[in-house]
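Is this the right way to post C-alpha cells for a design question? Let me know if I should format differently. Anyway, here goes:
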C-alpha cells in the first residue's frame, strides 16, 4: 500500500502536470476537512462553500506553493482553509462596521441601491459615473462587480475568470486612480 506522503506526492505531481482527475481525487479526499474548518470559522454554510472552492482553486492555480517536506497535503489544505475563512470573517465584519458607521439601511435597500445613490451625488462638478468611465475597462468591470453588485474579491475573480490576486490588483489600482481623479470631498468618502 502506498503511504499517505507518497500518495500526496503522486497526486500533487499530477496536479502540477494539469491533471484535473488528480485535483478531483484531492478534493474527494480533503473537501470534508476543508469545508468543516471553514464552516466552524465562518459559521455560515455559503461562506464555507466559497472558502472550500477558493482553497481548491488556489491549489489548482498554484500547486508549486505546496511543500510536502514541511508537512502533509492535508495539513497544507487545513491551514489554507483556516486562513481563507478568517479573511472572510474579517472582510464581512469590516463591511458590517462600515455599513453601521454610515447609518445606511442594511436590509431595506441593499448594497446596490446605496452605491447607486452615492454614485449619483455630484462631487465637485464631476459625477462618479463619469470618473468611472476614465478607468480601463477591466478595472471598471471589477469595480462594478465589487461595489455595485457587492461581490467579494474572490467572487469578482470568479465572475471575471481571473485569479483572485488579479482581481485584488484591479480593484486597488481602480481605487488609486479614482482617488487621483476625484475632488477632495470624494476622496475622503472612498478612503
Amino acid at each position: 500500500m502506498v503511504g499517505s506522503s507518497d500518495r500526496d506526492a503522486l497526486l500533487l505531481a499530477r496536479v502540477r502536470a494539469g491533471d484535473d482527475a488528480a485535483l478531483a481525487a484531492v478534493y474527494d479526499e480533503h473537501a470534508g476537512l476543508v469545508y468543516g474548518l471553514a464552516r466552524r470559522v465562518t459559521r455560515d454554510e455559503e461562506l464555507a462553500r466559497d472558502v472550500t472552492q477558493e482553497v481548491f482553486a488556489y491549489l489548482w492555480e498554484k500547486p508549486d506553493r505546496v511543500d510536502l517536506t514541511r508537512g502533509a497535503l492535508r495539513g497544507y489544505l487545513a491551514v489554507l482553509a483556516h486562513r481563507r475563512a478568517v479573511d472572510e470573517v474579517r472582510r464581512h465584519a469590516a463591511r458590517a462596521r462600515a455599513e453601521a458607521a454610515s447609518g445606511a439601511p442594511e436590509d431595506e435597500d441593499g448594497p446596490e441601491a446605496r452605491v447607486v445613490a452615492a454614485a449619483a451625488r455630484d462631487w465637485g462638478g464631476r459625477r462618479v459615473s463619469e470618473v468611472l468611465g476614465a478607468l480601463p475597462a477591466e478595472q471598471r468591470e471589477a469595480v462594478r462587480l465589487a461595489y455595485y453588485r457587492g461581490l467579494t474579491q474572490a467572487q469578482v475573480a470568479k465572475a471575471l475568470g481571473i485569479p483572485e490576486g488579479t482581481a485584488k490588483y484591479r480593484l486597488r489600482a481602480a481605487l488609486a486612480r479614482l482617488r487621483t481623479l476625484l475632488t477632495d470631498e470624494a476622496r475622503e468618502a472612498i478612503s
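Format looks fine. Someone answered above. Worth noting: The radius of gyration is 20 Å. The domain at 105-190 is CATH 1.10.10.10 (Arc Repressor Mutant, subunit A).
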